[in-house]
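Q: what sequence does this backbone want?
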C-alpha cells in the first residue's frame, strides 16, 4: 500500500523549517497541494522572514503545487483568510497539521506572565484558530484530517517549560473533544508528540543526537496520521525512527464510605487507589462517571 494525497489540499503551519517543512515536502511529494504557512519568526516568536516562500520554491522545483502564507496563527482572521485563499485556488481543505510553535523557556520562578501567555497563545490558541478556520469546510465536505502537535513536556513535564507544557497538554485535550465532535463528519483528529533536532531544539541536543533525531524520522507518523485510513484520537510519540503510543488512563479506584471518606481514608488506601491493575483508556469524559458508578455498585 502506498499512501497518497492526490486531490487533497493540506495546510501545514510553522512549515518554513524543521518538522513543518519536512511534513510539507512529504505531503507534496505524495500528491497533496500544500499551503505552507509560516510567520518566519525566531524561536521566541519575534521577527519575520520569507521562510514559507522558500519551501514553496522547493516543492515547485520538485514538480509539486504549493502556496505560501505568512499569517500568524494567533490571529483568527488571518487564518480564515488563509483558508479562503486555499479554497479559492484549489476548492477545499482536507488536511491541517498544526505545527507552529515558539519557545520561551525559563523556570517558573523567573518566568514573566507575558511569556507564559504568549507561548500558550501560539501553541494552544493558534491551533484552535487554525482548526476553527477549517472546521466548517471539513464538516461540509464530510472529510477532514487534523493533527495537533503535543510534546513529551506536555505529557510528562520538563523543567523550565511550564508555559510550553501547559499548552501542549491542552492540545491533547482539544484533540479528544474534536475527535468526538468530528466523528460523524469523517473528521479524524490525532496528536503527535515529536522529538526532533530542529531550530527550536538546536541547543538542547548534542551534535550526534541532533543528527539522529532528524525531522525526516518523525514525518512518517505525521503523514500517516493525516492519511485517509488514519485512526482518530491517537497520541503518537515519534523520534529518531521510533514510534510509540501514549495513553491517558484511569484506574478502577476505591469507594470510600462513611467515616472512611476523609483525607485520612485516602491516605490509608492510596496504594489501592493508584493500583493500575484493571485500568482503562476512557474514550470520553463520561466514562469516568460511569466507572465511578460501577465501583459504587460493587462496594
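A:
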Amino acid at each position: 500500500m502506498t499512501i497518497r494525497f492526490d486531490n487533497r489540499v493540506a495546510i501545514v503551519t510553522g512549515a518554513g523549517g524543521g518538522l513543518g517543512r519536512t511534513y510539507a515536502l512529504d505531503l507534496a511529494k505524495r500528491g497533496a497541494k500544500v499551503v505552507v504557512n509560516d510567520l518566519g519568526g525566531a524561536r521566541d516568536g519575534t521577527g519575520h522572514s520569507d521562510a514559507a516562500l522558500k519551501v514553496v520554491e522547493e516543492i515547485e522545483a520538485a514538480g509539486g503545487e504549493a502556496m505560501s502564507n505568512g499569517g500568524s496563527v494567533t490571529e483568527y482572521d488571518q487564518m480564515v483568510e488563509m483558508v479562503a485563499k486555499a479554497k479559492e485556488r484549489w476548492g477545499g481543505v482536507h488536511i491541517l497539521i498544526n505545527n507552529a510553535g515558539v519557545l520561551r523557556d525559563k523556570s517558573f520562578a523567573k518566568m514573566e506572565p507575558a511569556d507564559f501567555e504568549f507561548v500558550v497563545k501560539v501553541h494552544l490558541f493558534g491551533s484552535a484558530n487554525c482548526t476553527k478556520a477549517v472546521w466548517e469546510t471539513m464538516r461540509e465536505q464530510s472529510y477532514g484530517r487534523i493533527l495537533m502537535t503535543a510534546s513529551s513536556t506536555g505529557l510528562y513535564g520538563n523543567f523550565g517549560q511550564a508555559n510550553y507544557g501547559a499548552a501542549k497538554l491542552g492540545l491533547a485535550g482539544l484533540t479528544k473533544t474534536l475527535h468526538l465532535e468530528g466523528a460523524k463528519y469523517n473528521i479524524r483528529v490525532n496528536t503527535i508528540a515529536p522529538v526532533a533536532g530542529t531550530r527550536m531544539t538546536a541547543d538542547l541536543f548534542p551534535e550526534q543526537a541532533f543528527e539522529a533525531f532528524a525531522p525526516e524520522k518523525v514525518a512518517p507518523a505525521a503523514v500517516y496520521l493525516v492519511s485517509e485510513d488514519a485512526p482518530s484520537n491517537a497520541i503518537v510519540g515519534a523520534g529518531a525512527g521510533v514510534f510509540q503510543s501514549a495513553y491517558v488512563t484511569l484506574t478502577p479506584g476505591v469507594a470510600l464510605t462513611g467515616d472512611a471518606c476523609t483525607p485520612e481514608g485516602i491516605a490509608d488506601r492510596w496504594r489501592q487507589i493508584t493500583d493500575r491493575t484493571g485500568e482503562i483508556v476512557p474514550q470520553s469524559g463520561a466514562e469516568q462517571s460511569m466507572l465511578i458508578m460501577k465501583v459504587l455498585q460493587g462496594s
